[in-house]
Amino acid sequence: MATEGARVFREAWIAGVRRHFPGEPKAGYVTPWEGTPEWERAAAGAVYAQVRQLLEVSGGSAARLSREQKGRFVAVCWTAQMYRHFADPKPGYVADWPELPAWQRETDADIFEAIEKAA
Fold first, then answer.
1. How many domains does the chain contain in total?
2. How much is the pTM?
3. What is 16-80 written as a DSSP string?
4. In terms of domain of life, where is this protein from (predicted)?
5. What are phi and psi of 100, to 5 degrees?
6. Domain span at 42
7. Among 38, 56, 34, 46, which Cα is nearest to 9's?
């Protein structure tokens, strides 16, 4: 299940980047699962599990969150994973919601909604 959830996250990320990124995204943004580094797979699986748990402990009511709230939740969970995997993460990896580019905020909301659908 962990790998399956991480794949759902990664596929939603790639789809969101392709949908929302202005211009041509960096190759690393759209690397398929097979080329995704192990730390990133682990982080994706952890965030997937956190969204699933939020949906479960809220009795499904988390589905009523606004699109922005859903995206913010994914972003905060991802930031925590960056601190877990890197002693000194790049500032862009741990930027707060208002500092994230619009394409990334939209992609994070897409990820939450993809996890909802998979749940």
1. 1
2. 0.95
3. HHHHHSSSPPPGGGG--GGGS-HHHHHHHHHHHHHHHHHHHHTTTGGGGS-HHHHHHHHHHHHHH
4. Bacteria
5. -70, 145
6. 2-118
7. 46
